[in-house]
Amino acid sequence: MNENFQDITRRTVGTEIFKIEDIQTLWSGYGKIMRYGLKGGNKNTVVIKHVKLPDQSLHPRGWNTDLSHQRKIRSYQVETAWYRDWAELCDDSCTIPHSFVLESSKDEFLMVFEDLDASGFPVRKQSASMKEMQACLKWLANLHAIFMGKKPAGLWPVGTYWHLDTRPNELEVLEDVELKQAAHQIDQKLRASPYQTFVHGDAKLANFCFSSDGQQVAAVDFQYVGGGCGIKDVAYFIGSCLYEEDCERYEEGLLDWYFVQLKEALTKRKLPIDLTDIEQDWRALFPVAWTDFHRFMKGWSPGHWKIHGYSERIARDVVAQLNSENL
Protein backbone atom coordinates (compact mmCIF):
# COMPACT_ATOMS: atom_id res chain seq x y z
CA MET A 1 0.00 0.00 0.00
CA ASN A 2 1.13 3.55 -0.55
CA GLU A 3 2.02 5.52 2.57
CA ASN A 4 -1.14 7.64 2.41
CA PHE A 5 -3.36 4.54 2.51
CA GLN A 6 -1.35 3.07 5.36
CA ASP A 7 -1.78 6.31 7.32
CA ILE A 8 -5.52 6.29 6.63
CA THR A 9 -5.78 2.72 7.90
CA ARG A 10 -3.81 3.46 11.07
CA ARG A 11 -5.88 6.55 11.86
CA THR A 12 -9.16 4.75 11.28
CA VAL A 13 -8.48 1.68 13.38
CA GLY A 14 -6.55 3.77 15.89
CA THR A 15 -3.60 1.46 16.33
CA GLU A 16 -0.41 0.10 14.84
CA ILE A 17 -0.92 -2.35 11.98
CA PHE A 18 1.27 -5.15 10.70
CA LYS A 19 0.85 -7.64 7.87
CA ILE A 20 0.11 -11.25 8.77
CA GLU A 21 -0.52 -12.92 5.41
CA ASP A 22 -1.72 -12.64 1.83
CA ILE A 23 -5.14 -14.25 1.51
CA GLN A 24 -5.43 -14.13 -2.26
CA THR A 25 -4.42 -12.22 -5.37
CA LEU A 26 -7.19 -10.37 -7.15
CA TRP A 27 -8.31 -11.36 -10.65
CA SER A 28 -5.81 -10.48 -13.41
CA GLY A 29 -3.23 -9.19 -10.91
CA TYR A 30 -5.22 -6.12 -9.87
CA GLY A 31 -4.10 -6.30 -6.26
CA LYS A 32 -4.39 -8.44 -3.14
CA ILE A 33 -6.57 -9.31 -0.20
CA MET A 34 -4.48 -9.46 2.98
CA ARG A 35 -4.90 -10.05 6.69
CA TYR A 36 -3.35 -7.43 8.99
CA GLY A 37 -2.83 -7.55 12.72
CA LEU A 38 -3.60 -4.67 15.06
CA LYS A 39 -1.62 -3.69 18.13
CA GLY A 40 -3.49 -1.98 20.95
CA GLY A 41 -6.89 -1.83 19.26
CA ASN A 42 -10.23 -3.39 20.14
CA LYS A 43 -9.81 -5.92 17.31
CA ASN A 44 -6.90 -8.26 16.73
CA THR A 45 -7.13 -8.43 12.95
CA VAL A 46 -8.68 -6.82 9.88
CA VAL A 47 -8.85 -7.85 6.22
CA ILE A 48 -7.59 -5.34 3.65
CA LYS A 49 -8.55 -5.39 -0.01
CA HIS A 50 -6.01 -3.30 -1.88
CA VAL A 51 -6.56 -2.73 -5.59
CA LYS A 52 -3.63 -1.39 -7.58
CA LEU A 53 -4.45 -0.90 -11.25
CA PRO A 54 -1.84 -2.30 -13.66
CA ASP A 55 0.63 0.02 -15.33
CA GLN A 56 -1.02 1.52 -18.40
CA SER A 57 2.15 1.10 -20.46
CA LEU A 58 2.09 -2.66 -19.86
CA HIS A 59 -1.45 -3.13 -21.09
CA PRO A 60 -1.49 -4.38 -24.71
CA ARG A 61 -4.57 -2.41 -25.80
CA GLY A 62 -4.54 0.56 -23.44
CA TRP A 63 -6.97 1.47 -20.67
CA ASN A 64 -9.40 3.54 -22.67
CA THR A 65 -10.16 0.90 -25.27
CA ASP A 66 -10.08 -2.26 -23.20
CA LEU A 67 -13.61 -3.17 -22.11
CA SER A 68 -12.41 -5.74 -19.59
CA HIS A 69 -10.22 -3.20 -17.82
CA GLN A 70 -13.00 -0.61 -17.68
CA ARG A 71 -15.41 -3.24 -16.33
CA LYS A 72 -12.98 -4.08 -13.53
CA ILE A 73 -12.53 -0.41 -12.59
CA ARG A 74 -16.30 -0.02 -12.48
CA SER A 75 -16.62 -3.15 -10.34
CA TYR A 76 -14.39 -1.70 -7.62
CA GLN A 77 -16.32 1.55 -7.74
CA VAL A 78 -19.52 -0.45 -7.33
CA GLU A 79 -18.14 -2.44 -4.41
CA THR A 80 -17.14 0.79 -2.68
CA ALA A 81 -20.63 2.22 -3.25
CA TRP A 82 -22.22 -0.97 -1.92
CA TYR A 83 -20.39 -0.80 1.38
CA ARG A 84 -20.78 2.97 1.66
CA ASP A 85 -24.46 3.32 0.74
CA TRP A 86 -26.25 -0.01 1.04
CA ALA A 87 -24.49 -2.54 3.27
CA GLU A 88 -25.94 -1.18 6.50
CA LEU A 89 -29.37 -2.47 5.42
CA CYS A 90 -28.10 -6.04 5.73
CA ASP A 91 -28.89 -7.72 9.04
CA ASP A 92 -27.94 -10.98 10.75
CA SER A 93 -30.00 -12.93 8.22
CA CYS A 94 -27.52 -12.02 5.46
CA THR A 95 -24.26 -11.27 7.24
CA ILE A 96 -21.53 -9.33 5.46
CA PRO A 97 -18.28 -7.91 6.83
CA HIS A 98 -18.40 -4.45 8.36
CA SER A 99 -16.26 -1.92 6.48
CA PHE A 100 -13.89 0.40 8.38
CA VAL A 101 -12.15 2.19 5.49
CA LEU A 102 -13.30 2.91 1.93
CA GLU A 103 -10.79 5.06 0.05
CA SER A 104 -9.69 5.48 -3.54
CA SER A 105 -7.25 7.49 -5.60
CA LYS A 106 -6.55 7.69 -9.32
CA ASP A 107 -5.18 4.18 -9.62
CA GLU A 108 -5.86 2.53 -6.24
CA PHE A 109 -8.75 1.39 -4.06
CA LEU A 110 -8.46 0.58 -0.36
CA MET A 111 -11.11 -1.31 1.60
CA VAL A 112 -10.57 -2.36 5.21
CA PHE A 113 -13.02 -4.94 6.53
CA GLU A 114 -13.95 -6.86 9.61
CA ASP A 115 -12.11 -10.20 9.67
CA LEU A 116 -14.89 -12.75 9.24
CA ASP A 117 -12.62 -15.54 10.46
CA ALA A 118 -12.39 -13.81 13.82
CA SER A 119 -16.14 -13.08 13.82
CA GLY A 120 -17.20 -16.71 13.69
CA PHE A 121 -16.99 -17.56 9.99
CA PRO A 122 -13.58 -19.23 9.61
CA VAL A 123 -14.45 -22.02 7.16
CA ARG A 124 -14.24 -21.97 3.36
CA LYS A 125 -15.67 -24.77 1.23
CA GLN A 126 -14.63 -26.28 -2.08
CA SER A 127 -17.70 -28.52 -1.99
CA ALA A 128 -20.85 -28.27 0.07
CA SER A 129 -23.30 -30.61 1.75
CA MET A 130 -27.02 -30.14 1.33
CA LYS A 131 -27.24 -28.32 4.69
CA GLU A 132 -24.43 -25.99 3.70
CA MET A 133 -26.05 -25.22 0.35
CA GLN A 134 -29.29 -24.51 2.17
CA ALA A 135 -27.50 -22.06 4.47
CA CYS A 136 -26.23 -20.13 1.43
CA LEU A 137 -29.63 -20.15 -0.25
CA LYS A 138 -31.19 -18.82 2.96
CA TRP A 139 -28.64 -16.00 2.92
CA LEU A 140 -29.55 -15.19 -0.69
CA ALA A 141 -33.29 -15.29 0.04
CA ASN A 142 -32.86 -12.72 2.80
CA LEU A 143 -30.67 -10.48 0.62
CA HIS A 144 -33.31 -10.58 -2.09
CA ALA A 145 -36.10 -9.79 0.38
CA ILE A 146 -34.24 -6.87 1.97
CA PHE A 147 -33.63 -5.14 -1.36
CA MET A 148 -36.87 -6.07 -3.12
CA GLY A 149 -38.06 -3.19 -5.27
CA LYS A 150 -35.15 -0.88 -4.46
CA LYS A 151 -33.35 1.04 -7.21
CA PRO A 152 -29.64 0.14 -7.39
CA ALA A 153 -28.25 3.69 -7.24
CA GLY A 154 -24.45 3.62 -7.54
CA LEU A 155 -24.44 -0.10 -8.31
CA TRP A 156 -24.67 -1.99 -11.60
CA PRO A 157 -28.08 -1.24 -13.16
CA VAL A 158 -28.16 -4.94 -13.97
CA GLY A 159 -26.04 -7.05 -11.65
CA THR A 160 -23.95 -10.23 -12.30
CA TYR A 161 -20.52 -10.33 -13.87
CA TRP A 162 -21.77 -12.17 -16.95
CA HIS A 163 -24.51 -9.68 -17.87
CA LEU A 164 -24.94 -9.35 -21.63
CA ASP A 165 -24.37 -5.58 -21.83
CA THR A 166 -20.91 -5.96 -20.27
CA ARG A 167 -19.90 -9.04 -22.27
CA PRO A 168 -20.16 -8.22 -25.99
CA ASN A 169 -16.83 -9.87 -26.78
CA GLU A 170 -17.93 -13.21 -25.36
CA LEU A 171 -21.17 -13.00 -27.32
CA GLU A 172 -19.31 -12.16 -30.52
CA VAL A 173 -17.18 -15.32 -30.39
CA LEU A 174 -20.04 -17.62 -29.29
CA GLU A 175 -20.28 -20.40 -31.87
CA ASP A 176 -23.70 -21.69 -30.76
CA VAL A 177 -25.76 -19.83 -33.37
CA GLU A 178 -29.20 -20.43 -31.89
CA LEU A 179 -28.11 -19.45 -28.40
CA LYS A 180 -26.37 -16.38 -29.79
CA GLN A 181 -29.51 -15.30 -31.61
CA ALA A 182 -31.60 -15.79 -28.45
CA ALA A 183 -29.21 -13.97 -26.11
CA HIS A 184 -30.96 -10.61 -26.13
CA GLN A 185 -34.39 -12.16 -25.72
CA ILE A 186 -33.12 -14.19 -22.75
CA ASP A 187 -31.79 -11.00 -21.19
CA GLN A 188 -35.04 -9.15 -21.79
CA LYS A 189 -37.08 -11.94 -20.26
CA LEU A 190 -35.05 -11.69 -17.04
CA ARG A 191 -35.35 -7.90 -17.01
CA ALA A 192 -39.11 -8.11 -17.58
CA SER A 193 -39.82 -9.86 -14.29
CA PRO A 194 -42.00 -7.57 -12.14
CA TYR A 195 -40.01 -8.68 -9.10
CA GLN A 196 -36.67 -6.91 -9.26
CA THR A 197 -34.29 -6.75 -6.32
CA PHE A 198 -30.52 -6.61 -5.81
CA VAL A 199 -28.46 -9.63 -6.81
CA HIS A 200 -25.09 -10.43 -5.29
CA GLY A 201 -23.81 -10.98 -8.80
CA ASP A 202 -21.08 -13.54 -8.04
CA ALA A 203 -22.78 -15.82 -5.52
CA LYS A 204 -20.53 -18.84 -5.97
CA LEU A 205 -19.60 -21.18 -3.13
CA ALA A 206 -16.12 -19.63 -2.84
CA ASN A 207 -17.64 -16.28 -1.83
CA PHE A 208 -19.39 -17.69 1.24
CA CYS A 209 -17.70 -17.96 4.63
CA PHE A 210 -19.07 -20.64 6.97
CA SER A 211 -19.37 -20.97 10.71
CA SER A 212 -17.57 -23.98 12.19
CA ASP A 213 -20.78 -26.03 12.26
CA GLY A 214 -21.70 -25.02 8.70
CA GLN A 215 -25.11 -23.71 9.75
CA GLN A 216 -24.41 -19.98 9.32
CA VAL A 217 -22.78 -18.09 6.47
CA ALA A 218 -21.53 -14.64 5.59
CA ALA A 219 -20.78 -13.45 2.06
CA VAL A 220 -18.01 -11.37 0.48
CA ASP A 221 -17.05 -9.92 -2.92
CA PHE A 222 -19.67 -7.38 -3.99
CA GLN A 223 -18.02 -6.16 -7.18
CA TYR A 224 -21.01 -7.16 -9.32
CA VAL A 225 -23.92 -6.37 -7.03
CA GLY A 226 -26.79 -4.65 -8.81
CA GLY A 227 -30.38 -4.87 -9.97
CA GLY A 228 -32.07 -8.03 -11.18
CA CYS A 229 -34.39 -10.88 -10.32
CA GLY A 230 -32.96 -12.99 -7.51
CA ILE A 231 -33.30 -16.28 -9.34
CA LYS A 232 -30.12 -15.35 -11.26
CA ASP A 233 -28.13 -15.69 -8.03
CA VAL A 234 -29.86 -18.96 -7.24
CA ALA A 235 -29.15 -20.56 -10.62
CA TYR A 236 -25.52 -19.44 -10.55
CA PHE A 237 -25.01 -20.64 -6.97
CA ILE A 238 -26.46 -24.10 -7.61
CA GLY A 239 -24.34 -24.39 -10.74
CA SER A 240 -21.22 -23.51 -8.70
CA CYS A 241 -21.87 -26.40 -6.29
CA LEU A 242 -23.10 -29.32 -8.36
CA TYR A 243 -21.63 -31.46 -11.10
CA GLU A 244 -23.80 -32.50 -14.02
CA GLU A 245 -25.09 -35.73 -12.49
CA ASP A 246 -26.36 -33.92 -9.39
CA CYS A 247 -27.99 -30.87 -11.00
CA GLU A 248 -31.25 -32.49 -12.03
CA ARG A 249 -31.35 -34.69 -8.92
CA TYR A 250 -31.21 -31.82 -6.42
CA GLU A 251 -32.55 -28.86 -8.37
CA GLU A 252 -36.20 -29.09 -7.32
CA GLY A 253 -35.44 -29.65 -3.64
CA LEU A 254 -33.04 -26.72 -3.51
CA LEU A 255 -35.53 -24.45 -5.25
CA ASP A 256 -38.26 -25.54 -2.82
CA TRP A 257 -35.98 -24.62 0.10
CA TYR A 258 -35.06 -21.26 -1.40
CA PHE A 259 -38.67 -20.25 -1.95
CA VAL A 260 -39.67 -21.25 1.58
CA GLN A 261 -36.88 -18.99 2.87
CA LEU A 262 -37.79 -16.17 0.48
CA LYS A 263 -41.45 -16.23 1.53
CA GLU A 264 -40.47 -16.20 5.21
CA ALA A 265 -38.10 -13.28 4.64
CA LEU A 266 -40.67 -11.26 2.68
CA THR A 267 -43.36 -11.97 5.29
CA LYS A 268 -41.05 -10.96 8.14
CA ARG A 269 -40.44 -7.63 6.43
CA LYS A 270 -44.16 -7.14 5.75
CA LEU A 271 -43.62 -6.47 2.06
CA PRO A 272 -46.83 -6.24 0.01
CA ILE A 273 -45.93 -8.97 -2.45
CA ASP A 274 -48.04 -11.87 -3.69
CA LEU A 275 -45.91 -14.75 -2.43
CA THR A 276 -47.45 -17.29 -4.78
CA ASP A 277 -46.95 -15.05 -7.80
CA ILE A 278 -43.28 -14.28 -7.14
CA GLU A 279 -42.53 -17.98 -6.77
CA GLN A 280 -44.33 -18.80 -10.01
CA ASP A 281 -42.53 -15.99 -11.82
CA TRP A 282 -39.04 -16.78 -10.57
CA ARG A 283 -39.41 -20.58 -10.85
CA ALA A 284 -40.32 -20.15 -14.50
CA LEU A 285 -37.24 -17.95 -14.94
CA PHE A 286 -34.83 -20.42 -13.32
CA PRO A 287 -33.98 -22.22 -16.61
CA VAL A 288 -33.78 -18.83 -18.34
CA ALA A 289 -31.27 -17.58 -15.76
CA TRP A 290 -29.33 -20.84 -16.06
CA THR A 291 -29.21 -20.41 -19.84
CA ASP A 292 -28.08 -16.80 -19.52
CA PHE A 293 -24.98 -17.87 -17.59
CA HIS A 294 -24.47 -20.84 -19.95
CA ARG A 295 -24.43 -18.37 -22.85
CA PHE A 296 -21.60 -16.45 -21.20
CA MET A 297 -19.60 -19.59 -20.37
CA LYS A 298 -19.77 -20.95 -23.91
CA GLY A 299 -18.35 -17.71 -25.25
CA TRP A 300 -15.80 -17.14 -22.47
CA SER A 301 -14.44 -20.64 -21.85
CA PRO A 302 -15.92 -23.27 -24.18
CA GLY A 303 -14.07 -26.14 -22.46
CA HIS A 304 -15.17 -25.29 -18.92
CA TRP A 305 -16.51 -28.11 -16.68
CA LYS A 306 -19.78 -26.22 -16.19
CA ILE A 307 -20.61 -26.69 -19.87
CA HIS A 308 -22.21 -30.11 -19.72
CA GLY A 309 -25.19 -32.08 -20.94
CA TYR A 310 -27.59 -30.77 -18.30
CA SER A 311 -26.85 -27.15 -19.17
CA GLU A 312 -27.09 -27.90 -22.88
CA ARG A 313 -30.52 -29.51 -22.41
CA ILE A 314 -31.76 -26.57 -20.36
CA ALA A 315 -30.50 -24.09 -22.96
CA ARG A 316 -32.04 -25.99 -25.88
CA ASP A 317 -35.42 -26.09 -24.13
CA VAL A 318 -35.30 -22.38 -23.30
CA VAL A 319 -34.31 -21.41 -26.86
CA ALA A 320 -37.04 -23.63 -28.30
CA GLN A 321 -39.61 -22.04 -25.98
CA LEU A 322 -38.53 -18.55 -26.96
CA ASN A 323 -38.67 -19.45 -30.64
CA SER A 324 -42.21 -20.80 -30.23
CA GLU A 325 -43.26 -17.54 -28.55
CA ASN A 326 -41.98 -15.65 -31.58
CA LEU A 327 -44.12 -17.58 -34.06
Please describe what this structure looks like.
This protein folds into 2 domains: 3-114, Phosphorylase Kinase, domain 1; 130-325, Aminoglycoside phosphotransferase (APH), C-terminal lobe (Aminoglycoside 3'-phosphotransferase, Chain: A, domain 2), CATH 3.90.1200.10. It has helices at residues 3-13, 67-86, 130-146, 168-172, 177-191, 231-241, 244-268, 275-300, 309-325; strands at residues 16-25, 31-39, 45-52, 99-104, 108-114, 197-199, 208-210, 217-219, 226-228. The protein has 9 helices and 9 strands. It starts with a helix and ends with a helix. Helix 5 packs antiparallel against helix 8 (275-300). 45% of the residues lie in helices and 16% in strands. The longest helix is centred in the last third of the chain and has 26 residues, at 275-300. It is α+β, with helices and mostly antiparallel strands and 327 residues long. The strands form 3 sheets. A 5-stranded antiparallel beta sheet has the order 1-2-3-5-4, sandwiched between helices. Strands 6-9 form a two-stranded antiparallel ribbon. It has a two-stranded antiparallel sheet with strand order 7-8.
